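Lab meeting, item 3. Inverse folding demo.
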C-alpha cells in the first residue's frame, strides 16, 4: 500500500481502536494518538488507553519506536449537551428505529474535526479510526458515506488533502479479532482482552472470555458475539 509516513489515530482504548493502533503501527512509520474526554459514562477508557499504549510498546519494540505523542482533547461540552445513555447514568434503551440510546449525536463528526486540527499543527494528513458499518450498533456517523463527506469538508476547510483510514469498516467483530491476531498474534490478543475497554457502562469488575465489561450493554453484546465466532 502507498502510505504516507505519519498518521494520527483516534484512540479510545477499546477493542476496535487497539486493533487499529496495531494496524497503524504496522503500516506507518510514525504514529501519534488522540483521545477525547467528553464526560463519557465509561470514562475508565481514558485510563485503559494509557495501559494499552504502554503494553503495546513494550510487547512490540518495533512498534514502540514508531509511537509518538499522545494527545488528550477536552470535549466536556459534548457530554454536557448530550442526553444519552453514554453520557448519563440512565438505562440503555432502543428507539423505534432500533438506534440505541448510547448514540451521541455528531460524536464521530466532532472527533474528526478536532483530530484534523491536532493533525494540522503536527504536519499529519492521515487520520485512522475504528469506525465500522458492517458490525456496529447502527450509529449513522459510522457509515462510510458519512465519513467520506466529513473528510471532504475537512480537506476543503484545511486546504489540504486529508485521508481517513478505517481498517475495520467492512469487518465483523470476529473479523476484527482475526485482524488483531494477524497483526500481533496472541500477544496482541492478550493485550486487547486484558487491557482494552469497550463496555458502555464502564464496568471492569468481571472478566469474561472476551474481556472485561458488564456483559449486557450493546458494546458487550457485540464483543461477546464476535469473540464466540472468532474462537469457535
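The presenter then showed the designed sequence:
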Amino acid at each position: 500500500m502507498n502510505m504516507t509516513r505519519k498518521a494520527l489515530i483516534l484512540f479510545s482504548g477499546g477493542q476496535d481502536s487497539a486493533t487499529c493502533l496495531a494496524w497503524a503501527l504496522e503500516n506507518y512509520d510514525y504514529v501519534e494518538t488522540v483521545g477525547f474526554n467528553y464526560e463519557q459514562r465509561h470514562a475508565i477508557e481514558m485510563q485503559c488507553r494509557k495501559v494499552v499504549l504502554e503494553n503495546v510498546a513494550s510487547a512490540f519494540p518495533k512498534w514502540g519506536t514508531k509511537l509518538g505523542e499522545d494527545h488528550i482533547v477536552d470535549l466536556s461540552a459534548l457530554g454536557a449537551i448530550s442526553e444519552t445513555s453514554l453520557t448519563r447514568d440512565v438505562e440503555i434503551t432502543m428507539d423505534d428505529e432500533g438506534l440505541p440510546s448510547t448514540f451521541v449525536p455528531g460524536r464521530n463528526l466532532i472527533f474528526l474535526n478536532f483530530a484534523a486540527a491536532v493533525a494540522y499543527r503536527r504536519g499529519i494528513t492521515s487520520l485512522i479510526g475504528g469506525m465500522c458499518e458492517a458490525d456496529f450498533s447502527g450509529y449513522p456517523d459510522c457509515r462510510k458515506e458519512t465519513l467520506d463527506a466529513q473528510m471532504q469538508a475537512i480537506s476543503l476547510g484545511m486546504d489540504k488533502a486529508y485521508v481517513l483510514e478505517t481498517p475495520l469498516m467492512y469487518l465483523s467483530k470476529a473479523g476484527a479479532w482475526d485482524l488483531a491476531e494477524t497483526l500481533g498474534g496472541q500477544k496482541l490478543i492478550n493485550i486487547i482482552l486484558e487491557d482494552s475497554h469497550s463496555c458502555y457502562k464502564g464496568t471492569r469488575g468481571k472478566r469474561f472470555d472476551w474481556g472485561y465489561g458488564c456483559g449486557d450493554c450493546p458494546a458487550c453484546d457485540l464483543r461477546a458475539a464476535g469473540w464466540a465466532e472468532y474462537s469457535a
